[in-house]
Amino acid sequence: MPQDPSPASLLPGWALPVVRGGPAGPVTGRSAQRLKRDVEPRCSGSSLGPDKGSAQSPPSSSLTATPQKPSQGPSAPPTDVTPKPAAEAVQSEHSDASPMSINEVILSASGACKLIDSLHSYCFSARQNKSQVCCLREQVEKKNGELKSLRQRVSRSDSQVRKLREKLDQLRKASFPYLSSLLPPSREPPKMNPVVEPLSWMLGTWLSDPPGAGTFPTLQPFQYLEEAHISHVGQPMLNFSFNSFHPDTRKPMHRECGFIRLKPDTNKVAFISAQNTGIVEVEEGEVNGQELCIASHSIARISFAKEPHVEQITRKFRLNSEGKLEQTVSMATTTQPMTQHLRVTYKKVTP
């Protein structure tokens, strides 16, 4: 019985893919190109080039043939040559994709293990940081305790320093006796007697500045520090004390004390002095403005005083333009004529 020629009869040895799910429908140009691109690799072994293949295929067909080997015998069943639509061909390609290989599975598992290790490391580092913070807090608390202890020690040291300073002040007061310290603290200073008003410029506590200088033909030149304290207690006289010390060792040297009296309504002055050298003397002179000049009137000494004996003494007190008190002492002995012996300048430290 005669049959219509089919695409399979036009291309002997080629089998068209079977379309499942319905009759072949029209294939668009884009679908045909996609289908051709998917099938072309399978035909790479054929002797047909791209130009010949396109010449032999019908121009109106959108199907691509797949080469098949000839049947081995006449009894082989006919090949299903029903054409497939392009959409199903694409779907068939995706469904035929190979499953994930074992290497990809291993790589994915390795990545998961690395992620887990990273999480473990992060948690461990967080715990470690927390431990370090605790250690730092303990160290800070320890340092704060040490600082507190040091502050307490410094406070105790300051208290000890204050006590030592108080003792030093007491020793200084013992070395430099001030008459005013003997008076009750609440008592007001006594009023100056008008008789001693001409000598008021001598009142106060004075310290040598610079150190005093001593010379004499029978002595080596020397220096000394001296404190002079001249005060009054309301009587018609002044009280004085001169205490000298070695400039380096602060060892006490010459000391003398006494009184300065004025004859009322005159400028005549009497200077009565007792010295630690065993000499007691009376000097007299005159005060003129801010200068006092006196000379020895009588000198007495102890019976075992060393020779040569002092026979005469002169003194001069003056308040200079800088407000400093100057004293010059000259003396004559049994072996030396009148010669300058001492010269010192004082600065006032208390009124």
From TrEMBL:
Q: Does the keyword DNA-binding apply?
A: yes
GO MF term list: DNA binding; isomerase activity; zinc ion binding
Name the segments for region: Disordered: 1-97
Metabolic or biological pathway: Nitrogen metabolism
Q: Which reactions are catalysed by this chain?
A: peroxynitrite = nitrate
Q: Which PANTHER family match?
A: PEROXYNITRITE ISOMERASE THAP4, THAP4 PROTEIN
Q: What is this protein called?
A: Peroxynitrite isomerase THAP4
Q: Which organism is it from?
A: Heterocephalus glaber
- Top-down, what is the taxonomic lineage of the species of origin? Eukaryota, Metazoa, Chordata, Craniata, Vertebrata
